[in-house]
Amino acid sequence: MPSVFLNGRTIDRFKKKILAALNDGFSDLHINASPRTVGDRAQEVIEGLFAKGLPVAVGKAIQEKFARRAMADVAFTDTHKNYIVVDVKTHNEDTDFNMPNLTSVERLARFYEDDSNCFAVMIAKYGTKGATPKFNNLIFIPIEHLNWDCLTLGALGWGQIQIANARIININPRQTRKQWMLKLCDALDIFYPREIEKINDRIKRFKDIRAFWEKK
Predict the structure, then answer these.
(1) How far apart are CA 150 and CA 166, in angstroms?
(2) With contact defined as beta carbons under 8 Å apart, do 19 and 135 qualify?
(3) Distance CA 216, CA 75 (A)
(4) Domains (ranges, CATH) in the chain?
(5) SS3 letters for 106-149?
(6) Which of 18, 53, 106, 131 has the most CB atoms less than 10 A away?
(7) What's the chain look like in SS3?
């Protein structure tokens, strides 16, 4: 069953609460802090917010400690017993380009075998015009509401879903999970043959290198 948490007034109120917590949590951080520092601090703030307990209308936070390379930063069960894992990203709107990784295509495919599972993307956008980073926008949606025209695939493992440019986020809340996953399969039908071509080029390259060294 789709999560009601990720739609309507409930999510809007909770997003405002998250933005307020982020800005409070960054009041002592200098404007020149690195993107990594900002990302780590944002994750800490959001983890702390979830640990204090979610609003009743949202659901119940799951007390889990995720490894750095895990699929999620925080997780909760919503009011319909859906299990939602949340990947937290930050984006400095005063930079020209940012291509954040989201998750492995194979890991997501396994996770989505259960209809009650949801992989949500939380993108906290901030500006750097003042003395400290100022968070002014929060995107919080299931990954399947991201249009594929703003996503791409990276060559890591089975393939890594990435946002092509964090400045351009195209959202379609009417897109179903089935539609999105079929588009993922279409993208992989193009991606994998290209990767095979790259591997074949590398094989040929090192055959040439072997021949060069054998003649020495």
Answers:
(1) 8
(2) yes
(3) 59
(4) 4-215 (3.40.600)
(5) HHHHHHCCCCCEEEEEEEEEEECCCCCCEEEEEEEEEHHHECHH
(6) 18
(7) CCCHHHCHHHHHHHHHHHHHHHHHHCCCCCCCCCHHHHHHHHHHHHHHHHHCCCCCCCEEECCCCCCCCCCCCEEEEECCCCEEEEEEEEEECCCCCCCCEEEEHHHHHHHCCCCCEEEEEEEEEEECCCCCCEEEEEEEEEHHHECHHHEEEECCCCCEEEECCCCCCCECCCCCHHHHHHHHHHHHHHHHHHHHHHHHHHHHHHHHHHHHHHHC
* C-alpha neighbours within 13 Å on the C-beta side of residue 174: 0
Name residue, tokens 């279409």. 186
Q: How confident is the model over 138-167, as pLDDT tens digits?
A: 999 999 999 999 999 998 889 999 999 988
Asked if pLDDT for residue 182 goes beyond 80, the answer is: yes
> Comparing 22-26, 54-58, 69-73, which segment has the lowest mean pLDDT?
69-73
Residue where the block lists tokens 């299990």:
83
The pLDDT tens digits of the residues spanning 159-179 come to 999 999 988 899 998 899 999
The two structure tokens encoding residue 93: 């709107």
How is residue 216 written in tokens?
Answer: 């020495």
- Helices 35-51 and 8-25 cross at an angle (nearest 10°) of 120
